[in-house]
Write a structure and sequence with these properties.
By secondary structure, this protein is an alpha/beta fold. The chain contains 12 helices and 20 strands. The strands form 5 sheets. The chain has an 8-stranded parallel sheet with strand order 11-10-9-8-5-2-1-12, covered by helices on one side. Helix 5 crosses helix 6 and helix 10 runs parallel beside helix 12. The structure holds 1-deoxynojirimycin (NOJ).
Length: about 525
């Protein structure tokens, strides 16, 4: 595994909303450069930046019009080059967002592909051979151009699927994955990765990484073969490249495809979702980290552990505070609950990912859809740096802002939390400092659950010489985990040894070193 990943802590930046340096109401690359010291001081040494490429922004930039061009609203290629340089000058790393499964319908490849005369790009996308023939199981579009065929979508209507082939082609228009036309798509994607690596980026977060090969099998063996080929070829030139997949199947992504990291994604009702986002419209919330929830950590562990065990020697199965596709963590959890949840996320194996603003508990806002965000829009609002005009995000008139800011009088800001020792921000900083200092956190194959029981709220786990005890409930809880002869190196609330076990205060999280 790429060495620096072992101690990496990522900060996700949604560039639209982080910092506007030129007063046009939208965040930009120079704004990010201004705030690198903040990110570093927070304790993050790596960045994942959402797409910053030229785009019509029908899906916030995940509809790429030109993979090699920086969107004007974010700045210039030179700004991006400087961002890479400034990141490295601080001993940090940065991943761009690679969108390999689809382009914007405005990409020049698609314009060429839509032509009725055959050309170099005719098979770059997946077309049926006649306009009324449908690609079963896939959303498709016909009636938009003269080419006699329908094309498959990968996500929104504006995002036609690139052609990496079919695992078992059934129709003449379905190509096997090693067909020269599909190989040409791979070559194009390799070329794009190399282009940005040459420019100085350190790797990619890969969008919908599992979506490449169509009619793939359950473990996505076709897509894995494609990735394994693309990754190994890019690695020949850039052995240090770091890649994290949006996949949520580490056995495939890390075990077979060759990614070093995969995310535990938030899917309704899954193990990750139950930790912090298990709520419904009735106001019921049974998230594990809610004080009054009845949930035990087993619901998370049952799904997490087998997936973790499958790849723990090979790569990182990563936990996130949130991302641009999810409701913010603070939507459900109050400050104390957030502290406990973060303490857990940041002491588990894998590289943690902090979504911008989650470190201060930025709220989820009910907002109308912007750039294809739909319900995700409310998690994409301007970063709240300080009190006053637009929270220090931008000097623009309010009406020009990319999205409205949080008008709540109690909206959190970096400024307010920066020097307050009991703030969420201070907690995140302190815990990340502890994380940096302990070697056990730099190894990722060392997780042992030492106490977790159905029906019990408190639990404990160990990583080499470190024991983590957590009680998310509102009551004191006793667990059979001894902590005599250990030093407490971090605590929210406290734990005391009792009768060979330990008693955890309500809503506590304690790290002891043996
Ligand atoms: C996942 C991205 O995170 C999301 O924002 C986007 O809309 C889809 N993929 C489509 O690219």
């Amino acid at each position: 595994m790429t060495e620096w990943l072992k101690t990496a802590v990522f900060y996700e930046i949604y560039p639209q909303s982080f910092k506007d340096s030129n007063g046009d109401g939208i965040g930009d690359l120079r704004g990010i450069i201004e705030k690198l010291d903040y990110i570093k001081e927070l304790g993050c040494n790596a960045i994942w930046m959402n797409p910053c490429y030229d785009s019509p922004f029908k899906d916030a930039g995940y509809d790429v019009r030109d993979y090699k061009k920086v969107a004007e609203r974010y700045g210039t290629l030179e700004d991006l080059r400087q961002l890479f340089e400034q990141v490295h000058a601080r001993d940090m790393h940065i991943l761009m967002d690679l969108v390999p499964g689809h382009t914007s319908e405005e990409h020049r490849w698609f314009a060429a592909s839509s032509q009725k005369e055959p050309n170099e790009y005719s098979e770059r996308y997946i077309w049926t051979d006649c306009w009324y023939k449908r690609a079963e199981g896939f959303p498709y579009i016909a009636g938009e151009c003269e080419r006699n065929g329908a094309y498959i979508l990968n996500y929104f209507k504006c995002q036609p699927a690139l052609n990496y082939g079919f695992l078992n082609p059934q129709e003449s228009w379905q190509k096997p994955i090693d067909h020269p036309d599909c190989m040409a798509t791979r070559e194009a994607m390799i070329d794009i990765m190399c282009y940005w690596m040459e420019m100085g980026c350190d790797g990619f977060r890969v969008d919908m990484a599992d979506s490449l090969v169509k009619n793939d099998d359950a473990v996505k063996s076709g897509t894995c073969r494609v990735w394994s080929d693309m990754i190994s070829r890019v690695q020949e030139k850039y052995p240090e490249i770091a890649l994290v997949s949006e996949w949520n199947n580490p056995a495939s992504a890390i075990g077979m495809a060759g990614f070093q990291m995969d995310f535990f994604l938030d899917w309704f009702g899954n193990g990750y979702n139950l930790l912090m986002r298990d709520y419904d419209d009735t106001g019921r919330d049974d998230s594990f980290f809610k004080k009054d929830s009845g949930r035990s950590i087993q619901d998370f562990l049952q799904e997490y552990l087998p997936k973790y065990e499958a790849v723990k020697e090979k790569g990182l199965y990563c936990l996130i505070t949130g991302n641009h596709d999810m409701v913010r963590a603070a939507y459900n959890l109050d400050e104390r609950e957030l502290k406990l949840a973060y303490a857990f996320l940041f002491t588990m194996p894998g590289a943690p990912f902090i979504y911008y603003g989650d470190e201060i508990g930025m709220r989820y806002l009910q907002l109308p859809c912007k750039e294809g965000g739909y319900t995700r829009t409310g998690s994409r609002t301007p970063m709240q740096w300080e009190a006053g005009r637009n929270y220090g995000f931008s000097d623009a008139d309010e009406a020009l802002l990319y999205l409205p800011t949080d008008t709540d009088g109690a909206a959190p800001t970096v400024e307010e939390q920066q020097n307050r020792p009991d703030s969420l921000l201070s907690m995140v900083r302190e815990l990340l400092r502890v994380r940096r200092e302990q070697e056990a956190f730099g190894r990722h194959d060392n997780l042992q659950v030492i106490f977790a029981e159905e029906g019990k709220r408190a639990f404990a786990y160990q990583r080499d010489d470190l024991i983590m005890l957590c009680n998310p409930s509102g009551q004191e809880e006793k667990i059979p985990v001894g902590i005599e002869n250990t030093d407490v190196i971090y605590q929210i609330g406290s734990a005391r040894p009792e009768g060979g076990g330990s008693v955890l205060e309500p809503q506590s999280f304690v790290i002891c070193r043996k």
